Amino acid sequence: MDRMRELIDILNKAAKSYYQLSREIMTDREYDTLYDELVALEEKTGIVLSDSPTQKVGFEVLSSLTKVRHEKRMLSLDKTKDTQKLKSFLGDKEGVLSWKMDGLTIVLKYEDGILKQAITRGSGEIGEDITHNARVFKNVPLMIKEKAPVTVRGEGIITFRDFEKINETLADEDKYKNPRNLCSGSVRQLNSEIAAKRNIHFYAFALVEGGEHKLRTEQLDFLKGLGFKVVEHDIVTAENIEKTVREYEARIEKNEFASDGLVLSLNDIEYGKSLGETSKFPRDSIAFKWADEMAETTLTEIIWNTSRTGLINPIAVFESVELEGTTVNRASVHNVSILKELALGIGDRIKVYKANMIIPQIAENLTKSGNAPIPDKCAVCGGETEIRSLREGEALYCTNPNCKAQLVRSISHFCSRDAMNIEGVSEETIRKFVDEGFIENYTDMFTLESHGEKIMAMEGFGEKSFGNLVASVKRSSDVHMYNFIYALGINHVGLSNAKLLCKNFDFDFERITKATEEELLEIDGFGAVIAHSLNSYFANAENMNLLEKALGFISFAAEEVNTDAESLSGKTFVVTGDVFEYKNRKELQKDIELRGGKVTGSVSKNTDYLINNDAHSASSKNKKAKELGIPVITEKEFIEMFIK
Fold it and tell me: In the beta sheet, which residues pair with residue 313?
């Protein structure tokens, strides 16, 4: 009984985090293992507690979105990893096998051929009305030819490619761990413009209401005829079910979407209904999850790989094992939090598997020595590292903006509008220049003219485009000092901090480079982290050599005196999320600073206002603001309060 109560507590916390907060505190595999253990204990003891997750579907929704009760309760599916059980389930009946897509289940309701309502699965009994967002999904029909009421169930998903693109646009602390979490967070946005940018696709998998059909395949064909994309499916029998499962298995690596198994449903609708349902599962369908092939091996090394964003990913290297038909000897550990949670150490005995039969993962550490050191220096450049708190836990970063691993990203930042403002240089162009050896550091942007013939011969370049690039570089050489300092990409030094730095040292660049940490700490708003970062950057001989070279190409522009009323003097703002009244967040930040205000990147007790158009989101900044009692206002509220 003690173990049952412990399992119920763990599983309910995991379900609450997943369904209500769109976050994961354990993997699917871990959840399934604990759930199966609880089911076995309940069967053994004959006791089922009232708060057991085996007796209820999900949790109540905690959101400002309108709650809606489903007309028909949405049950979970019983599951198996044994194809023999699938054969037994079918017996002599025909079934429909389809992907179990890993996204967010949504119900769409149509009346008179028009989309009237979209509801999330929620707890299975009560969901959230997300109609405003469903209308901007990539492929949801807003009108259909069927005038009678139609109710459709399906899965909202974000493809792997879109997931990577969208995550690239988000701040490190706002990045999502996987496409499912991103889809869940996107679907539940209060502002449909945010959801529209997330490329959410809807795949129908069931017709709840509409038409007269005897078979599920007829229902899917009916939905396809109405303009819906339907989940990929095949008709199966006990004779070919195993073969068909293997065929689906072979296609996993080529899928553009995440899946966590298959769904098998009886094709005969009336027969399936006649079987009824349990308190939790319908008896006409069952989920099949891939049986994880597990192997035990020895951890031999932890490699720390610095990415182009400065994120340093730990990769576990172990003695080679065979998994799912391939040889595997390494797996990503993702971040520092997982490294600590697994208590990894060199020589540990670990169990490894392929998540969803694709990605090698560490399932368990049997010895847990915990002796794997977290490096204080980047393996690529030798720069200092630091641990930062992100959405998915703690992660290690290289703090050196001149790190070769981060070259493309740092040059792109150097050229950006709020930095040197070198127009017509995309990240892809920079990557080509780096690959060709034209750029080894930011100062090489000023000598691209020497590679003119080779650049003009490159695809996408010609004499005119190259001339425009050279002209843009020359225009950028007359730059404000704070824009140049911001362009250097010094860790923790944004544009507003660069302006404060210049102002406090009377725009004397030499004084800035020679400032001690104590002098930097005297600047209002500068803490120990910023002071150390600036001091370390200018104390680095390589950085100073590059600076000396760069100063031979640039001249600092005369500083403009801000004559605008200091209406925001003494006020500190944090800006997060998408903006709509301003062109972008930088424009909003500029407006605040012109009025004497300050914009920082994180919420603290010194913050006066958090500007977020999605004021009710569950983001880390919103939560922190609410904890500290800091007002969360929208752009329009900001304009009404301080601009008009």
Answer: 305
List pLDDT tens digits, range 112-169: 988 999 999 988 889 999 998 988 888 888 888 888 999 999 999 999 989 988 887 7
Cβ contact 96:159 at 8 Å: no
Q: What is the four-CA torsion angle of 95, 98, 101, 107, rounded to 10 degrees?
A: -60
Q: Please choose, from the candidates 229, 241, 227, 244, the residue with its C-alpha nearest in 3D space to the C-alpha of residue 113.
A: 227
pLDDT at site 59 = 44
Amino acid at 509: F
Cβ neighbors of 245 (< 8 A, separation 6 or more) are 83, 86, 97, 262, 288
Please write the tens of the pLDDT for every residue from 433-479.
988 999 999 999 999 999 999 999 887 788 888 899 999 999 999 99
CA-CA distances (angstroms) from residue 480 to 442, 484, 558, 561? 17, 6, 7, 13
Report how far residue 185's alpha carbon sits from residue 104's, in angstroms, rounded to the nearest whole number.
Answer: 10
Six token digits for residue 502: 């210049």
- pTM, 2 dp: 0.58
C-alpha distances in Å from residue 271, one per residue of 96, 127, 213, 274, 585:
14, 29, 13, 5, 57
489: number of Cβ within 10 Å? 23
DSSP state for residue 76 in the 8-state scheme: -
List the one residue out of 642, 481, 491, 471 whose CA is nearest residue 565.
642
Residues 153 and 204: their CA atoms lie apart, in Å, by 6
Q: For residues 394, 395, 396 and 398, what is the CA-based torsion angle, rounded to 10 degrees?
A: -130
**C-beta of residue 53 within 8 angstroms of C-beta of residue 35:** yes
Distance CA 120, CA 131 (A): 10
List Cα–Cα distances, 205 to 46, 57, 111, 152, 288, in angstroms. Answer: 35, 19, 19, 8, 16
Query: For residue 612, which amino acid is it?
Result: N
Q: Which of 48, 45, 59, 47 is nearest to 14 (CA)?
A: 59
Helices (H), 296-417: 336-342, 407-415
Sequence-distant (≥ 6) Cβ neighbours of residue 209 within 8 angstroms: 149, 150, 151
Convert the pLDDT of each residue in 247-289 to its tens digit. Answer: 998 888 788 998 889 999 999 999 999 999 888 899 999 999 8
C-alpha distances in Å from residue 472, one per residue of 256, 288, 311, 436, 603: 39, 58, 31, 21, 36
Q: Which active-site residues does the annotation give?
A: 100
Angle at 17 between CA 13 and CA 22, to 5 degrees: 165
Residue range 37-54: average pLDDT? 79
CA separation for the pair 589, 574 (Å, rounded): 9
CA pair distance 69, 125, nearest whole angstrom: 6
What CA–CA distance (Å, rounded) separates 604 from 529?
Answer: 14
**The predicted structure's pLDDT at residue 172:** 64
